[in-house]
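Entry 12.
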Amino acid sequence: MLERKVTSVGILGAGKVGTAIARQAIRAGYSVAIATAKPPEDIALIVEFTAPGAIATTAEALMRDSDLIVIAVPLAKYRTLDASGLAGKVAIDVMNYWAPTDGAIADFEGARSSSEVVQLHLPETRLVRTLNHIGYHELEQNALAAGRPGRQALAIAANDVAARRLVADFIDQLGFDPVDAGPLIAARALQVGSPVFGARLARFEMENALSFGTVELIPV
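Predicted 3D structure (C-alpha coordinates):
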Protein backbone atom coordinates (compact mmCIF):
# COMPACT_ATOMS: atom_id res chain seq x y z
CA MET A 1 0.00 0.00 0.00
CA LEU A 2 1.36 3.40 -0.99
CA GLU A 3 1.54 5.87 1.88
CA ARG A 4 -0.15 9.23 1.58
CA LYS A 5 2.42 12.01 1.30
CA VAL A 6 2.70 13.91 4.56
CA THR A 7 1.57 17.51 4.26
CA SER A 8 0.02 18.02 7.69
CA VAL A 9 1.58 17.38 11.08
CA GLY A 10 -0.35 17.31 14.33
CA ILE A 11 1.43 17.74 17.65
CA LEU A 12 -0.11 16.56 20.90
CA GLY A 13 1.49 18.79 23.51
CA ALA A 14 2.50 22.45 23.58
CA GLY A 15 5.67 22.22 25.67
CA LYS A 16 9.20 23.12 24.61
CA VAL A 17 9.78 19.93 22.64
CA GLY A 18 6.46 19.96 20.85
CA THR A 19 6.67 23.61 19.85
CA ALA A 20 10.29 23.25 18.67
CA ILE A 21 9.21 20.41 16.38
CA ALA A 22 6.28 22.54 15.25
CA ARG A 23 8.55 25.45 14.31
CA GLN A 24 10.93 23.22 12.40
CA ALA A 25 8.07 21.47 10.60
CA ILE A 26 6.63 24.84 9.56
CA ARG A 27 10.03 25.87 8.19
CA ALA A 28 10.04 22.64 6.19
CA GLY A 29 6.71 23.56 4.60
CA TYR A 30 4.28 21.41 6.57
CA SER A 31 0.97 22.66 7.90
CA VAL A 32 1.01 22.19 11.67
CA ALA A 33 -1.72 21.89 14.28
CA ILE A 34 -1.20 21.71 18.04
CA ALA A 35 -3.57 20.34 20.66
CA THR A 36 -3.51 19.80 24.40
CA ALA A 37 -6.10 18.67 26.92
CA LYS A 38 -7.31 22.29 27.06
CA PRO A 39 -9.80 23.88 24.64
CA PRO A 40 -8.12 25.46 21.58
CA GLU A 41 -9.07 28.97 22.66
CA ASP A 42 -7.12 28.49 25.89
CA ILE A 43 -3.85 27.73 24.07
CA ALA A 44 -4.28 29.87 20.94
CA LEU A 45 -2.11 32.74 22.18
CA ILE A 46 0.60 30.39 23.42
CA VAL A 47 0.66 28.61 20.08
CA GLU A 48 0.76 31.92 18.19
CA PHE A 49 3.72 33.04 20.29
CA THR A 50 5.73 29.78 20.47
CA ALA A 51 4.97 28.34 17.03
CA PRO A 52 3.91 31.11 14.63
CA GLY A 53 2.02 29.63 11.73
CA ALA A 54 0.65 26.66 13.66
CA ILE A 55 -3.02 26.47 14.57
CA ALA A 56 -4.53 25.47 17.88
CA THR A 57 -7.15 22.76 17.62
CA THR A 58 -8.76 19.94 19.56
CA ALA A 59 -7.04 16.61 20.03
CA GLU A 60 -9.95 14.91 18.28
CA ALA A 61 -9.66 17.11 15.17
CA LEU A 62 -5.88 16.79 15.18
CA MET A 63 -5.95 13.00 15.25
CA ARG A 64 -8.61 12.91 12.56
CA ASP A 65 -7.03 15.39 10.14
CA SER A 66 -3.24 15.05 10.48
CA ASP A 67 -1.15 12.88 8.17
CA LEU A 68 1.49 12.46 10.86
CA ILE A 69 1.17 12.89 14.62
CA VAL A 70 3.85 13.75 17.16
CA ILE A 71 3.18 12.69 20.75
CA ALA A 72 4.89 15.21 23.01
CA VAL A 73 2.85 15.07 26.21
CA PRO A 74 4.43 14.46 29.63
CA LEU A 75 5.25 10.75 29.69
CA ALA A 76 3.48 10.23 33.01
CA LYS A 77 0.22 11.08 31.20
CA TYR A 78 0.63 8.52 28.43
CA ARG A 79 -2.44 6.57 29.56
CA THR A 80 -4.59 9.62 28.75
CA LEU A 81 -3.76 9.20 25.05
CA ASP A 82 -6.81 8.18 23.03
CA ALA A 83 -6.04 4.71 21.68
CA SER A 84 -9.07 4.69 19.39
CA GLY A 85 -8.31 8.14 17.99
CA LEU A 86 -4.72 7.11 17.26
CA ALA A 87 -5.62 3.71 15.79
CA GLY A 88 -4.06 3.28 12.37
CA LYS A 89 -2.17 6.57 12.63
CA VAL A 90 1.56 6.98 12.20
CA ALA A 91 2.66 8.66 15.43
CA ILE A 92 6.12 9.71 16.58
CA ASP A 93 6.83 9.16 20.27
CA VAL A 94 9.26 11.83 21.52
CA MET A 95 8.59 11.28 25.22
CA ASN A 96 11.50 10.36 27.49
CA TYR A 97 11.63 8.79 30.92
CA TRP A 98 14.11 10.18 33.40
CA ALA A 99 13.42 9.14 36.98
CA PRO A 100 15.46 11.95 38.64
CA THR A 101 13.09 14.46 37.03
CA ASP A 102 9.88 12.47 36.60
CA GLY A 103 10.12 10.44 39.77
CA ALA A 104 10.12 6.67 39.58
CA ILE A 105 7.23 5.39 37.46
CA ALA A 106 6.76 1.64 37.81
CA ASP A 107 5.57 1.24 34.19
CA PHE A 108 9.00 2.36 32.92
CA GLU A 109 11.30 0.64 35.39
CA GLY A 110 11.44 -2.68 33.50
CA ALA A 111 13.54 -3.81 30.56
CA ARG A 112 11.19 -2.40 27.94
CA SER A 113 11.85 1.05 26.51
CA SER A 114 9.27 3.71 27.24
CA SER A 115 8.09 3.50 23.61
CA GLU A 116 7.44 -0.23 23.93
CA VAL A 117 5.30 0.50 26.99
CA VAL A 118 3.43 3.23 25.13
CA GLN A 119 2.87 0.84 22.23
CA LEU A 120 1.13 -1.57 24.62
CA HIS A 121 -1.31 1.23 25.46
CA LEU A 122 -1.71 2.11 21.76
CA PRO A 123 -1.78 -1.34 20.15
CA GLU A 124 -3.22 -0.18 16.82
CA THR A 125 -1.03 2.90 16.44
CA ARG A 126 1.89 2.73 14.02
CA LEU A 127 4.24 4.05 16.68
CA VAL A 128 7.67 5.36 15.70
CA ARG A 129 10.52 6.27 18.04
CA THR A 130 12.66 9.22 16.98
CA LEU A 131 13.34 12.89 17.79
CA ASN A 132 13.71 11.93 21.45
CA HIS A 133 17.52 11.72 21.40
CA ILE A 134 18.16 15.31 20.31
CA GLY A 135 17.66 18.41 22.44
CA TYR A 136 14.89 20.75 21.37
CA HIS A 137 17.40 23.59 20.93
CA GLU A 138 19.60 21.42 18.72
CA LEU A 139 16.59 20.45 16.61
CA GLU A 140 16.54 23.98 15.24
CA GLN A 141 20.22 24.90 15.56
CA ASN A 142 21.72 21.76 13.98
CA ALA A 143 19.39 21.31 11.01
CA LEU A 144 21.14 21.27 7.63
CA ALA A 145 20.03 20.73 4.05
CA ALA A 146 20.55 17.27 2.58
CA GLY A 147 24.11 16.66 1.44
CA ARG A 148 25.65 19.35 3.63
CA PRO A 149 28.82 18.28 5.50
CA GLY A 150 28.30 17.66 9.20
CA ARG A 151 24.62 16.82 8.89
CA GLN A 152 23.42 15.14 12.08
CA ALA A 153 21.77 11.72 12.01
CA LEU A 154 18.63 10.72 13.88
CA ALA A 155 17.65 7.09 14.39
CA ILE A 156 14.17 5.74 13.71
CA ALA A 157 12.69 2.62 15.31
CA ALA A 158 9.26 1.13 14.62
CA ASN A 159 7.68 -2.24 14.02
CA ASP A 160 5.94 -0.91 10.91
CA VAL A 161 8.42 -0.70 8.01
CA ALA A 162 6.27 1.65 5.95
CA ALA A 163 5.88 3.96 8.96
CA ARG A 164 9.67 4.06 9.32
CA ARG A 165 9.99 5.12 5.70
CA LEU A 166 7.33 7.80 6.06
CA VAL A 167 8.99 9.24 9.15
CA ALA A 168 12.43 8.99 7.54
CA ASP A 169 11.27 11.41 4.86
CA PHE A 170 9.90 13.73 7.55
CA ILE A 171 13.23 13.65 9.43
CA ASP A 172 15.08 14.41 6.19
CA GLN A 173 12.80 17.38 5.52
CA LEU A 174 13.45 18.69 9.03
CA GLY A 175 17.17 18.80 8.23
CA PHE A 176 18.63 15.54 9.54
CA ASP A 177 19.89 12.25 8.10
CA PRO A 178 17.44 9.46 9.02
CA VAL A 179 18.94 6.12 10.09
CA ASP A 180 16.67 3.07 10.13
CA ALA A 181 17.29 1.36 13.47
CA GLY A 182 14.80 -1.43 12.83
CA PRO A 183 11.87 -2.58 15.01
CA LEU A 184 10.66 -0.80 18.10
CA ILE A 185 12.84 -2.88 20.41
CA ALA A 186 15.74 -0.79 19.05
CA ALA A 187 14.26 2.18 20.91
CA ARG A 188 16.12 0.81 23.94
CA ALA A 189 19.32 2.05 22.30
CA LEU A 190 17.92 5.60 22.07
CA GLN A 191 16.91 6.13 25.68
CA VAL A 192 18.22 8.59 28.24
CA GLY A 193 21.69 7.49 29.32
CA SER A 194 22.53 5.58 26.15
CA PRO A 195 25.63 6.56 24.11
CA VAL A 196 23.33 7.75 21.32
CA PHE A 197 21.20 9.99 23.52
CA GLY A 198 22.19 13.64 23.10
CA ALA A 199 25.16 12.77 20.88
CA ARG A 200 25.72 14.64 17.63
CA LEU A 201 26.52 11.77 15.27
CA ALA A 202 26.93 11.64 11.51
CA ARG A 203 25.06 8.94 9.61
CA PHE A 204 27.96 6.45 9.58
CA GLU A 205 28.59 7.05 13.29
CA MET A 206 24.95 6.42 14.13
CA GLU A 207 24.88 3.30 11.96
CA ASN A 208 28.02 2.01 13.66
CA ALA A 209 26.66 2.75 17.13
CA LEU A 210 23.48 0.83 16.38
CA SER A 211 25.21 -2.01 14.51
CA PHE A 212 27.73 -2.66 17.25
CA GLY A 213 25.03 -2.64 19.90
CA THR A 214 25.23 0.25 22.32
CA VAL A 215 22.45 -1.50 24.28
CA GLU A 216 21.78 -5.21 24.59
CA LEU A 217 18.38 -5.69 22.97
CA ILE A 218 16.75 -8.62 24.72
CA PRO A 219 13.03 -9.24 24.16
CA VAL A 220 10.91 -9.39 27.30
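Annotation: The radius of gyration is 16 Å. The chain has a mean pLDDT of 94.
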